[in-house]
Design brief:
Radius of gyration: 14 Å
Order of helices and strands: EEE
Number of domains: 1
Strand content: 25-35%
Number of strands: 3
Helix content: under 10%
Strand order of the largest sheet: 1-2-3
Distance between the termini: 34 Å
Amino acid sequence: MGRDTNTYTMICQGKELSLYINGVFTHSFEHKDLKEGQVGFGVSSYDSYPVKVNVNWLEISEP
């Protein structure tokens, strides 16, 4: 469980953030406090500790 490799894509356009997992759209939301130029990365778990994540690469780019 939890050992598959997945590709996460997050696209921010204006105040809307859209999430894709393995190229499949999963969710989008609009947030009034999103601002240009701020990027964050976080990981959490509801029932498993410690949380261990292996990131092979991270790319941040303009559309």
